[in-house]
Amino acid sequence: MKYKCLVLDHDDTVVDSSESIHFPSFIEYLRIYYPDKASDYDFESYIVKNFHPGIVSLFMDEIGMDEEELKKEEEFWRDFVKNHVPNAYSGIGEIITDFKSRGGIVAVDSHSLTEYIVRDYKANSLPDPDVIYGWDIPKENRKPSPATVLELMERYKLSPSEVLVVDDLKPGYDMARGAGVDFAAAGWAYRVPEIEDFMRKNCDFYLESVEELRELLGI
Q1: Rounded distance, CA 106 to CA 193, Å?
Q2: CB 165 within 8 A of CB 172
């Protein structure tokens, strides 16, 4: 295989979750605590803000939350996600299975909580990842920091050319670039022109379908 390690984002890469879970949670929170801002966002504008500058900047710099309010929003989000399980994209489980069966290492690097990543993999009958880096790791190590990818390479004695990051948003792209590894944009979750334009111009690969990931991996 071209790559020995596959680093997968979770939301909108492995599972279809932002439009069905994370965006509704965001809007419901605004309706309760920031009702004057609830109508400012549709799904596309929300995804663009997640793409850049990122969810924390959206909450703090644009909506105006302080650290205490950010913690309250996170608890609301945790409770919402607890009761909503997303569906995996068709074909992604088979890709993970086939990659692992050939000796590949699968890591998840996500801004979702580890416990929910584990839950989603089990609920969708996906093979267990070898490593999970969730929102609950130290914040300085979260995407866009390359710290987790560098740790993976050290742990498994991998060269940068042996690692592929697959993600739908810019923090994953920035993480891959910081670690010096290849990056493939997961373009199968949604079509947002601003995001697609950036990804096509800057990424090593732009994948329109899950099947294109299989072809890229050569499995």
Answers
A1: 30
A2: yes
The DSSP bridge partners found for residue 205 are: 184
What's the pLDDT score for residue 53?
86
Q: Give the 3-state secondary structure of residue 205.
A: strand
Query: Where do the H-state alpha helices sit in 52-133?
Result: 55-57, 67-82, 92-101, 114-123
pLDDT of the residue at 102: 97
Kindly report the pTM of this predicted structure.
0.92
DSSP-assigned letter for residue 14: T
Six-digit token string for 144: 């866009």
Does residue 170 contact residue 178 with C-beta atoms inside 8 Å?
Answer: no
3-state secondary structure of 186: strand
Average pLDDT over residues 1-27: 96
pLDDT the model gives residue 54:
86
Residue closest to 166 by CA, chosen among 89, 102, 113: 89
Tokens of 199: 């990804």
Q: Say if strands 15-16 and 87-88 run parallel, antiparallel, or are unpaired.
A: antiparallel
Q: Which of 198, 214, 124 is nearest to 164 (CA)?
A: 214
Residue 7, pLDDT above cutoff 90 = yes
3-class secondary-structure state, position 183: strand
Strand partners, 16: 87
| DSSP SS3 for 197 | helix
The answer to whether 113 touches 133, Cβ cutoff 8 Å, is no
**Tens of pLDDT, residues 84-124:** 999 999 999 999 999 999 999 999 999 999 999 999 999 99
